[in-house]
Amino acid sequence: MTNSIAATPMARPFAKSSISFSRIAIYVTLFGAAAVYLIPLVVMLLTSFKTPDDIRTGNLLSWPQVVDGIGWIKAWDIVGGYFWNSVKITVPAVLISTFIGAMNGYVLSMWRFRGSELFFGLLLFGCFLPFQTVLLPASFTLGKLGLANTTAGLVLIHVVYGMAFTTLFFRNFYVSIPDALVKAARLDGAGFFTIFGRILLPMSVPIIMVCLIWQFTQIWNDFLFGVVFASGDAQPITVALNNLVNTSTGAKEYNVDMAAAMIAGLPTLLVYIVAGKYFLRGLTAGAVKG
Amino acid sequence: MAVLSKASPFDTLQRWLPKLVVAPSMLLILVGFYGYILWTFILSFTNSSFMPSYKWVGVQQYVRLLDNDRWWVASKNLVVFGGMFIAISLVLGVFLAVLLDQRIRKEGFIRTIYLYPMALSMIVTGTAWKWLLNPGLGLDKMLRDWGWEGFRLDWLVDQERVVYCLVIAAVWQASGFVMAMFLAGLRGVDQSIIRAAQVDGASLPTIYLRIVLPSLRPVFFSAFMILAHISIKSFDLVAAMTAGGPGYSSDLPAMFMYSFTFSRGQMGIGSASAMLMLGAILTILVPYLYSELRNKRHD
Amino acid sequence: MNAINRLAAVISLASLFPLSALAADAPAESKGTVEVVHWWTSGGEAKAIDVLRKLVEKDGYTWKDSAVAGGGGAAAMTVLKTRAVSGNPPSAAQIKGPDLQDWGALGLLTELDDVSKANNWDKLLSKTVANTMKYDDHYVAVPVNIHRVNWLWINPVAMKKAGIDKAPTTLDELFAAAEKFKAAGLIPLAHGGQPWQDSTVFEDLVLSIMGAEGYTKAFIEQDEDTLTSPKMTEVFKALKKLQGYMDPDGTGQDWNLEAAKVINGKAGMQIMGDWAKSEWSAAGKKAGTDFECVPFPGTQGSFTYNIDSLAMFKLSAKNNTPGNIAAQNEVAKIILEPEFQYVFNQNKGSIPVRDDLDMTKFDSCGQAAMADFKAADKAGTLKPSMAHNMATSLAVQGAIFDVVTNFMSDKNADPAKAGAQMASAIKAAL
């Protein structure tokens, strides 16, 4: 059921009149809005292929006088080395936090116990904690664990502060699944993990996709934790990007800045473009049903 | 039933298993969220300056904070920014979702365009918009180059209007995501209800306003939660786009807290501001959370 | 204090925790590793620090680079604090003037007695510089360079075009020149409206109008009577007047983009420290012919300094090996050696920290700065820059920044009240 919904919308009320003024208006509005959403990306792309002189003289949307790849080459030289660091941080953090979210969501929806609602409430409120407040105590804790300024420590931090959202996603998804399924399995003597593995996991694909995409975007784009909890050669690409874009002295090469920003944003952009439809399917399948 | 009452070690394990599974998370949350909040709470009553110290000074830091003009500017900005950001994103998201739900060709393509800003980090977004809105460099210059001589877009350097620039960039980033959530919600609406209403002679806008959208209340809830979450934490965006300027007219509480705690060596005031922020979130959010979650149980 | 000591004790205990072994990462063949947290990330600076890296590596040590740009070192400060709390500080970090005292008071910095004695630092460095680097009478940091803040940069071609025959030496001449630039259709004053830039202009005006003594009273002693005096009103009036000549598109702009406007002749002048020279050099311009540097009008004979320095941390237990300590000392030694001083300062636009070097290798601005530095040091007009965090604590500096930058962005601000606002803001920050 979930697969068909997003792909083929059912007959919609407006669609009855085949071609009319309102349909044209709808298309114009939608494509107009799309153009506006695209402007920043287009500007960044155009700028990344210009020469510094061209940037100074031309305007934002002018076509590069000469398409110049030097910006990308320079940018890759500077931030490219950090790309792999980001992968090493993001992949484990995403997988672990998604797994924990699935387990928590499963318990909070199917195996409620006294205090489980309170736990959920505490978790929800925790989402709103500004992360700047936790920097000092968290680094103190990591120091105690001997994980200060290690990739493992950074992954741990991402898991802890990503958990609230992943749990929320899975819990909301599983809440919409009838209890009867699980109850029947329990009467048959199926255990905690058997029920999860045999019944829930196979239906969880949409929500797992949502969770993976969401977490991947959050963690890949993170700057604050990366700059504080990683160091030296292990810094993620966002820190390298910031070092490039945010310097206060020296000649500004906007083509390099923009190319570096594109490089840093490429993986998440790709994920959205390639897996975007799974994201919508997952949302449809229940992630948003409060 | 008989199985449960036997209480063999295996069954005991089964009964405890759910709790065991969430126990590590619970521990992490108690330490990583509430332990650290408690620590910040304690610091807000101390004279911590450059680094944490534990000399008790009572509510002095709160007094100084409330005396600080910059804090009030930041708080007012959050109300304006958060309010406009949430409202515009919701309206725009719903509007686009409803339009996109009319059997549009190339829907997937358009959807992806609306959604892609969410994929970019706030640092990239902020940098790009800083450039676009820069008078003399960005859109301002472009429109004048194109012959619109009198055009002047200088909100970014205008003390009164700079906060709207933040709203523009933030809406651009998040509204596509809201659209996706509502589109997903619309796809789940039972078509027979709509047809029944049409048979009764209700017009389409009426159907959407009266029947379809009210049934999406849980989606509103989720969207509101996510947008509120983004607006309270909008730190990277301000840092990259305005750094709080001109003057400190586009400061936000998260920014205020960060700069007092870390760059200004006034950790006590920074902690006090964090506590006030959390307090404000608590008073607004908890009643909403409570009523929404309670309603749902009645459904 | 007691609490701080306790914290320090916990921190050092924490670092003994066995899991620490997991984090060890020094390659076995290296003689020792030195990790440096700094924010020298832009073109000329990055090149300059790379020189240090190469010199250190040539001697067989490993250099671990932890660059953190942003907010004039604010981001690096956050990183340093969290690392200190986690018990895993870097070997060395870019820390400035008064902050050294705070870090020293926490007991986190290591004393450089051996290197400083062996290399005779007390002889090499001027007393002002040496004292800034010391905590409790021991060197805890190495000075890298000396920047002069009170400079005015002028494009001579633009000056000729506007019909100005000589660089301004008084405030009145400055305003007259600005008026002429304006009449010629140029931006008189390139200026980026970021808090630190606003305050750089402000402190120059204080020095110009109130003199070196008034500067000391206002910023170092933070004397309330001075801050609320009529002279201070005059300063704010001049600031407002000067603002009328500033680039209207400059709000929130980086200083180097504004410098570019002077370089390509769109603007006439810029008030900026000597790091601005790196922009001119990068554009292939020569001091004296393509651009002029003069002391900010009315501040001739005074010298506001901004010294960059690397502080050395006590190493955590797992890093505390003889090799790593040797690496730390090696860095400290190399920084003061002529080879590094020449290259680094020529790249940065600053002057060397030791006064026995051959200045003919520097351009006319560098030579003038060195001469003025020595003269000001003797005359007692060598003053720490407030805007660059050499004169006050960060809290006080932040309070001053808030008042100045708010005064500049508020069109209806009253110069007569600003001084009193500053005095009360400073009091609240103490």
TrEMBL record, chain A:
CDD domains reported in the protein's UniProt record: TM_PBP2
A GO-annotated cellular component: plasma membrane
Biological processes, Gene Ontology terms: transmembrane transport
Domain ABC transmembrane type-1, first and last residues per copy: 83-275
Superkingdom of the organism of origin: Bacteria
Membrane topology: Multi-pass membrane protein
Main localization (coarse): membrane
Subcellular location(s) per record: Cell membrane
Bilayer-crossing regions: 24-46, 89-111, 118-140, 152-174, 195-216, 258-280
Membrane keyword on record: yes
Record flagged with keyword Transport: yes
Keywords: Membrane, Transmembrane, Transmembrane helix, Transport
InterPro entries: MetI-like (IPR000515), MetI-like_sf (IPR035906)
Family: Belongs to the binding-protein-dependent transport system permease family.
Stated name of the protein: Sugar ABC transporter permease
Organism: Pseudomonas turukhanskensis
Lineage: Bacteria, Pseudomonadati, Pseudomonadota, Gammaproteobacteria, Pseudomonadales
From TrEMBL, chain B:
Any Gene Ontology biological process: transmembrane transport
First-listed, main subcellular location of the protein, grouped into a coarse class: membrane
Chain ranges passing through the membrane: 20-42, 78-100, 112-132, 161-186, 207-232, 267-290
Superkingdom of origin organism: Bacteria
Alphabetical list of SUPFAM superfamilies matching this protein: MetI-like (SSF161098)
Membrane-protein topology: Multi-pass membrane protein
Name of one Pfam family that matches: BPD_transp_1
Location relative to the cell: Cell membrane
GO CC, alphabetical: plasma membrane
Keyword vocabulary terms for this entry: Cell membrane, Membrane, Transmembrane, Transmembrane helix, Transport
Segments forming domain ABC transmembrane type-1: 75-290
Family: Belongs to the binding-protein-dependent transport system permease family.
Name of protein: Sugar ABC transporter permease
Lineage: Bacteria, Pseudomonadati, Pseudomonadota, Gammaproteobacteria, Pseudomonadales
UniProtKB/TrEMBL annotation, chain C:
Principal location class: periplasm
Pfam families per the UniProt record, alphabetical: SBP_bac_1
Domain of life per record: Bacteria
Keyword Signal listed: yes
Keywords attached to this entry: Signal, Transport
GO cellular component: periplasmic space
Role of this protein: Part of a binding-protein-dependent transport system for a sugar.
Family (UniProt): Belongs to the bacterial solute-binding protein 1 family.
Name of the molecule in the record: Probable sugar-binding periplasmic protein
Source organism (scientific name): Pseudomonas turukhanskensis
